[in-house]
# Entry
Amino acid sequence: MTTRTAAPERLRPVRRTRTTNTRRRESLTALGMATPAVVLLIVFLVVPVALAFALAFTDARLISPTPARFVGLRNFTRLFEDPVFYKSLRNTAYFAAVVVPLQAGLALVLALLVNAKVRGVNFFRTVYFLPVVTSMVVVSLLWTFLYRKDGLVNHVISTLTLGHFQGPDWLGDPATAMPAIILMSVWQGVGFHMIIWLAGLQTIPAELYEAAEIDGATPWHRFCHVTWPGLRATRTFVLVTITIAAFSLFTQIRVMTQGGPLDSTTTVVYQAVRTGYDQQQTAYAAAISLIFFVLVLTVSLVQRFLTREKD
Amino acid sequence: MTSLLKRLSGHAGRVVLALVFALPLLFMLVSSFKPDDQIFGDLGSLRAFLPVGTLSLDNYTDMFERVPAARFLLNSVLISSVTVVLGIIVNSLAAFALSRMRWPGRKLVLTVIIATLIVPFETFALPLVWWVNQLPLLRVNGFHLAWTTGWMDTYQVQVLPFVANAFSIFFFHQFFQSIPKELDEAAIMDGAGWFTIYRRIVMPLSGPAVATVAILTFLPAWNSYLWPLMVVQSEELRPVMVGISYFFQLNVGWGQIMAYSSMITVPILALFVAFQRSFVNSIASTGVKG
Amino acid sequence: MVFRKRRLALASVAAAAATALVAGCASGTGGSSSGASGDTLTLWTHNAGNSAELDVVKKIIKDFNESQDTYTVELQSFPQADYNNSVVAAASARKLPCLLDVDGPNVANWAWGGYLAPIDVTGSEVPVEDQLASTVGTYKDQLYSFGFYDVSLAFFARKSVLDEHGIRIPTMDKPWTRSEFDTALAELKKSGEFDYPLEMGTGGSGEWWPYAYSPQLQSFGGDLIDRNGYKAASGILDGKESVEWGNWFRSLVTKGYMAKKSGADPNKDFLAGKSAIQWDGSWNAAKNAGKLGDDLAIIPPVDFGNGPKIGGSSWQWAMSSTCSNKDGAQEWLKFSRQTKYFVDYAQATSTIPATDAAAQQIADYQPGGMFEELVQFAREYATVRPVTPAYPYISTEFQKAAQDILAGADPEDALGQAAKNIDNNLKTNNNYAG
# Structure
């Protein structure tokens, strides 16, 4: 950390001596390096996404004998009158608001647990990572079994409470369906972010901990003054990616509840896919996606603004 | 004394958590050896996690009869590994340029790249189908090369759209930022070029990041389902996840599904264990000493 | 500096080469563009992983390829779960195969959308007129598709269980009435032998919902849409009779007769004695008979007022409009229309053959045969789902309404919202004219 702050002072004279020629060369090289990725992103992401968004202003259907026509904002006015859309927005926000702190926090705890130099730590890392490598479709199927009224989750609850408490039909009850999906999603995804935190933890030089040790810092102090500041870049990454993934909640819903019961688990992306594919309303689905994009972009920009630190 | 207690409680926490994470998958693995009736019979008790009752490999043999599983595995291994290798090169190069070099517009490019993370794949899959079908394709016809149009029903349509990945670029970018910039300056003083810095200094220090990105790219490639269904018509080119819906026909074979799921999970686990070592090794090799 | 630049250039070339390498892996199969290359035609089916039916398709293709020298048909099979997405994607890329199968209720939608071309199969061994009406797909008075079989739903029960509880075993002449059915369920529930006496597969998803339950709605006197012109659902889907159905459907759950959501395998639960009466497809008839023998009762649907009803129409064969070799495609369609193949399908898949001639060759379907009634159900009670391009939309709205009703929504509100959405959809699409 100390080297960081000292560096610019030391390097300033070096930078000043550089000619504009070297600068230009640096720019050109940078462009050359970025080009493959940028070109691929433009071809396979930007162009199709732009096409998809353009459809939002037409009457395009999935299957139709006539070509799409421009209809202005018709899809958007319809969308703002759609009660399911508001429910989807609310459910999505609810999911994200719980999952983001829960998953990020739990992942950090796990990362700290398995960053210890103890025997068998590789084993634990692997076990915590198990759900991540299992496809979400498979995981959702498994948990549908576990969440049944006569399923294992309730069996465990009943055993632990000595039969005093009988669990509900988790996915069949509007009050418990979303919490059940939240729990499963965190279980599935937390191992991944544990790895990300772990990668971050390992960039913190061991000397800093040694120095703290010599200074007689408590573990909590060590965490606050060495670990946490050292994870700055990782923090932003974890926050942004969990947020975006949480907003995109879809597969679990598709497999487990199809938005029910009584719209308690319908989400924006689920609604977009249902209207776009099952209901063949391509243009309407495009409008949903476009609104979704704008909303999540706003949230991410606000997030980045809030978490940004002075360089 | 207290430190021993602390260590023990730390271990107890790790073990309890391990159970929570492993049990549902243990259920999958154990069920793959049981007949369907027994899977459902055991569902309400701890027997669901135990290899008890009638156990056999029947589900596995049936599964191989129902789905060309070997071929699908081979395809997925090919598709995923090519995507990973190309992805690591392409994305780390871009991230290097974005995080360590100075050029006009880099902040904007980074913001736009992060913004592309937001659009869920499902929402633009269909325009993408149409679009990849407009792209030129170089086909090998005996000894001739011929340009045709349309990428449907190929391996490359399952690879190239997923090589450049905003997540990976973002991750590399964040990681590269935590490597002291003085290293670059010193190297430049010694006459090294940017590409040398990338290859000789930054990448060797980025073991954990490369491992993470490898997993990050591998997982979605391995699990891709909707896309191959839309763009691949030939059974010989299909990847593993498509196989799972082969079982959801009239007679759902739950035991077979468990067997198939176990089978497609094991290779990624092996991969993870392999890459996981590079995290550990990277601690020793880290040259970040300021 | 120059040296370093060259390195970068080398790296770019390497990346390009790697890309080209992947490009070179392009499949050699090709040929599927516009469904045929010359006289080699591609055929798609939804039967990947379902070897019973797939083997029949393979057999017909093999016989056809050997029967003449001009055409060759090649098979591609897809998993059923997302078969429609595969077809839609191919259509958007103009890469539909020449021949494809299609689920009956989707024929109007695909014909309207220009996916399918009308077919002419005159001169084939089995005339179209000989088929069960529900196995023939027409749109705007033109023939687009035909199927080899249909399936029918029925109630399955154990005679011994019904006798024990004093429940009459109904016949086609005298099916259960609504009050009789409700009394029977109450009786079974009271016995305490069953958590849920009735099993109707409520854990299913997708097309199962309109297929299984909308005929009951029709038996109440309601319907999914006004079939006169297919221009409105309001007043029909949310009409008095439909709401009556909704209340009844909901009461099955509130009274504890039926699970809100069935287990993973309802038929297994029924055979294990967890439920007394199962509403299920003819495809499980043979399995049930094998397990229960003479104790198995195959019961006609309940007459809720407007006669017993079951859904008709299953998978059918069609030709794509973009097919570049329509003569060849129709040759195959004609060739396949032989009684022996109708028999093969029915036997392999435990379905009901689409013609009498085929039914007569299967012992169980003959008069006096074990499953004769199932053939009669298909003939007498089958109602096709609305033949309109709007059907896929109607289907999703009905699914949601029915699921919401079971979850506790007010039937009038749920059906009213569905009717309103369908009307809106019809309006924005100009009633699917064109």
